[in-house]
């Protein structure tokens, strides 16, 4: 029996658009979708549980993701998932990066393994740096006599609505590709402060 080629797509909220990740969905036998925070381990997500069940039934021939961070939020989560898949000889493809974990003969691709590890480390470092900068900003505000209470009710738009705006979605895509805020501002026309806000909201989504 022919095994399934699966495309897995994920966004952090129901308001974010999956169209970019689905651009090649016609090339796959099945699309599995999750709308949940990337902080949740892949196989603990609703769609991830479905994927795990199909793997357990030996029905999966390959799994593809748009980007590396779709299968895990940190290095450990990504490495654990890929190790699980390599052990079962199931190739994992990352469309945007053009990387595959296994060669045609089923052996592990060492170049892809190195690239995936490096990109996972960089992504995790960037997230930690943003979290650190956010924490320092809050502490500095407290030292200046400003009490950080978070967003006051009714004073600004819903964060999901904010992130769903086309320019802000584009800024998120560029941030994930490690573009600098100045570069993103030139590309999107967004103010630096808006890009900073996007960065902060990405951490809690």
Structure, described:
The protein has 205 residues and is an alpha/beta fold. Helices cover 46% and strands 12% of the residues. It is built from seven helices and five strands. Strand 4 (92-94) and strand 5 (99-100) form a beta hairpin. Helix 5 (166-176) runs antiparallel to helix 6 and helix 5 packs across helix 7. The model has no long low-confidence stretch (mean pLDDT 80).
SSE blueprint and pairings:
Layout: E1 4-11, E2 30-35, H1 46-56, E3 60-65, H2 75-87, E4 92-94, E5 99-100, H3 110-143, H4 159-163, H5 166-176, H6 181-188, H7 192-204
Parallel strand pairs: 1-2, 1-3, 3-4
Antiparallel strand pairs: 4-5
Outline:
This protein is of the alpha/beta class and 205 residues long. It has helices spanning 46-56, 75-87, 110-143, 159-163, 166-176, 181-188, 192-204, and strands at 4-11, 30-35, 60-65, 92-94, 99-100.
